Amino acid sequence: MTVKELAGTLGLEILTGDINLDRQVGSGYTSDLLSDVIANIGDDAVWITIQRHVNILGVAKLKDVSAIIIPRNLGLEEAFLNKAKEEGIAVLRGAQSAFELSASTYNEMKRGRGVA
Question: Which CATH number does the domain housing residue 92 bear?
Answer without folding.
Answer: 3.40.1390.20
